Structures are given as C-alpha cells and as structure tokens.
UniProtKB/TrEMBL annotation:
Matching CDD domains: HP_PGM_like
Organism: Leuconostoc gelidum subsp. gelidum
Binding of substrate, residues: 8-15, 60, 87-90, 98, 114-115, 190-191
Family according to the record: Belongs to the phosphoglycerate mutase family. BPG-dependent PGAM subfamily.
Gene symbol of the encoding locus: gpmA
Catalytic activity: (2R)-2-phosphoglycerate = (2R)-3-phosphoglycerate
EC nos: 5.4.2.11
Active site: H9, E87
Isomerase in keyword set: yes
Matching Pfam families: His_Phos_1
Residues marked Transition state stabilizer (site): H189
GO biological process: gluconeogenesis; glycolytic process
Annotated protein name in UniProt: 2,3-bisphosphoglycerate-dependent phosphoglycerate mutase
Length: 237
C-alpha cells in the first residue's frame, strides 16, 4: 500500500486580489507562505515519510512544496516538475478581477465558466497573446514551455481538458512510483488536483463540481496495489 498526498498551494498574490490566476506565474502571499508551512507541520505530525515529490512549473506550487517539505524535515527527497500539473488555463479571463468579470458577463455565466466540467472560458486569440496585470506578464512561450509542442499548449481550458492534460503524466510517472510502493506528495493547484481526485475517486462529471480542495490542507490517500482508494482524509488544524 502506498500513500499519495495532494497539497493545493497556499494563497497566491492574485488569489488575495480576487484575480483569475491560471498559468500566470504569481508568488505566494504572506498568508500563502503560512499555509504552506502549516501543511508541512501537519505532515510532520502525521508521520508520513515520502519517497518522491511532484509539482508544477509555477512558482506558487514549487514554493509551497519546498516550505511544506522543509517543515516536515524532508526537503531532501527527489523532486520532479511538469507543466502538466499546472493550474487550469483560464484563457482570456486570466488577470481579470472575478467580481468585475461577473459584472461584465453576469454571475451565472462566470459561475458556469468557473465550475462546469466541460464549458470553455473565453479563449486567448493566439499563443503570443500576453496578460499584464499588477506588473506580471504571462507569455505563452517562455523557457519553461520551450520543449512543449505548440499544439499542446492551451489557449484556455475547462476541467475536462485539464484532466486530459494531467493524465499522461500520471500514467508515465506518478502512478509508476505509487505502484512501486513509494509514498508520493504532489503540490499543485486547485483544478489540476481536482482532476486527479476525479480520476482516483471515480467522481462523476456532475459531482466533481462540488469538490473543493482548500489551500494548504493536505489530502491523504491510502492506495492499494491497483491504485484504488482504500482511505482518504484531509489534514487540518
């Protein structure tokens, strides 16, 4: 039996400003740093010994992983990063204030874009389009995506497409470690982790809308040899 722990990154600077974040590379807020460290304290109290860590290529997830592992006394474990664990790409909504978007398009439409399984948000017009808000610019092609085929980078995603993007990395890397009996921790994002939870727990397209994963509260799965969930619990203070 192996353990899999999912940690949603701590609050980001754009979370605090109520902005659509997506693939824009923002940092943790002060509250987010505290949440990440508290996640590590919870893991230390739980006594889980990890063999492998995974995270996205976005700073808020990477630093959450490092703060958590440091507090848990396990900063030394192997770590791998993949763009496939990135947050859902919010397309043309990235950088917009959520309240202002609701005023522009209506609460119901924005709710559908945010929570539905298979409805796409407004898409970027091209891969070269940028978002500049609060001094942060996101170009679709920067160094972290240099080796990704252009057709695989999104102009916007729903949860369904996010799951389709995450699963190849799950199959090629993460699941192999778990089947080998390794304990794995993944620090990533609300929607990439919801996608993984949907896959693991066989959650329906309708029911996944109700799943929330809180910032900095580790979700612990015990998995059998077939990677079926034996038990699940959320760690919190």
């Amino acid at each position: 039996m192996a353990k899999l722990v999912l940690i949603r990154h701590g609050q980001s600077e754009w979370n605090a400003l109520n902005l659509f974040n997506g693939w824009v590379d923002t940092k943790l807020s002060d509250k987010g740093v505290t949440q990440a460290k508290e996640a590590g304290e919870l893991l230390a109290a739980e006594g889980i010994q990890f063999d492998q860590a995974y995270t996205s290529v976005l700073t808020r997830a990477i630093t959450t992983l490092h703060f958590a592992l440091e507090e848990a006394g396990q900063l030394f474990i192997p770590e791998a990063k993949s763009w496939r664990l990135n947050e859902r790409h919010y397309g043309a909504l990235q950088g917009q204030n959520k309240a202002e978007a609701a005023e522009k398009w209506g609460d119901e439409q924005v709710h559908i874009w945010r929570r539905s399984y298979d409805v796409l948000p407004p898409l970027l017009d091209s891969y070269e389009e940028t978002v500049e808000v609060q001094g942060t610019t996101y170009p679709a092609f920067d160094r972290r995506y240099a080796d990704v085929p252009k057709g695989e980078l999104p102009l916007g995603e729903n949860l369904k497409i996010t799951l389709e993007r995450v699963l190849p990395f799950w199959e090629s890397d993460i699941s192999k470690d778990l089947k080998a009996g390794k304990n794995v921790v993944i620090a990533a994002h609300g929607n990439s982790l919801r996608a993984l939870a949907k896959h693991l727990e066989h959650i329906s397209d309708d029911d996944i809308l109700n799943l929330e994963i809180a910032n900095g509260q580790p979700l612990v799965y015990d998995l059998d040899n077939n990677l079926e969930v034996v038990s699940k619990k959320t760690l919190s203070k």
